[in-house]
Amino acid sequence: MKSIPIYIVLFCFLISSNIYSQQNDEIRFNFDNQYLRNPAAVSIWNQTEIGLYYQNNFTAISNAPSNMFAGVQYAIPNQNVGVGLAIYNESAGIISNTTINLSSAYKILDILKKGDYLSGGINLSFTRIGISGDKIRANNLFDPLIASGFENAMSTNIGFGFYYNTLRVLDSRRPKPSFQFGFSGIKALPQNVNLESLSYKEQFYMNALVGNIIPLADELSLRSLLEFQYEGKNLVNGLVSTQLIIQKQISLGVSFDKFNTLGFQLGYILQNLFGDDTELALSANGNLPLGEIDNYINSGIAFGIQYRFNGNSFSKF
Fold it and tell me: Which CATH class, in words, describes the domain spanning 4-309?
């Protein structure tokens, strides 16, 4: 992308204050990395996980927006504490956005029954947004609203969350039904982010979720997740994802959201690849907007890798 018409630049910048939310909205089938949206959901099964994810949006056009993250969540053995680290990167034309997110959660055990917990969490985020002004094409290059070179700005913010789970340990040998719900607020401190030629206000982002896991047979289970996302009256979304796990190896998923976008997932799980009580889950996702003839340009593809170590799941905590 060597040059960009000014109207595209202005449109991209108008949505840049929503980059964090838009990035979260696009991560479908978020069963394993819920702490990305709720810091209280770190290591919800008292496990250690490492995740990598990449997504390309608008696959029918060149230089399409893309986002990716790398994250780790760790449950401290024999404690009620989990910690998480995630690094996000999103690029859309001349705009790039990178966020480092630190999360921590504390579990209060046996709230409503033996074996459940209520978790409270906080997160601290460091965000850098950059604009490559040298790629802008405009009728008046001396317009003060147009960045002439590379500009960047930094911001720091905090978030909070609550998460309830009816089970502390997900035992695949003796599966039981489980139920979860949570609520979180991200970027809770409203503040302006100032670049050299433009500025914008970070938006407070709220997320609520309800999920469950239902064993259907010895080698068959169903996971579901319903999420509501809010960032001002102009950005409200609801997303439902369902995943069928067959013989603890194959996962088939489907999702749908308020914007009539249909998502699909196909995954394969490798057991004990790096030792006992480990899993390596590989997944490929796709989404297809419905309702308009030319909406195929808004299709997207994504790939994910998730490593899980469940050896500390049964430790006393």
Answer: mainly beta
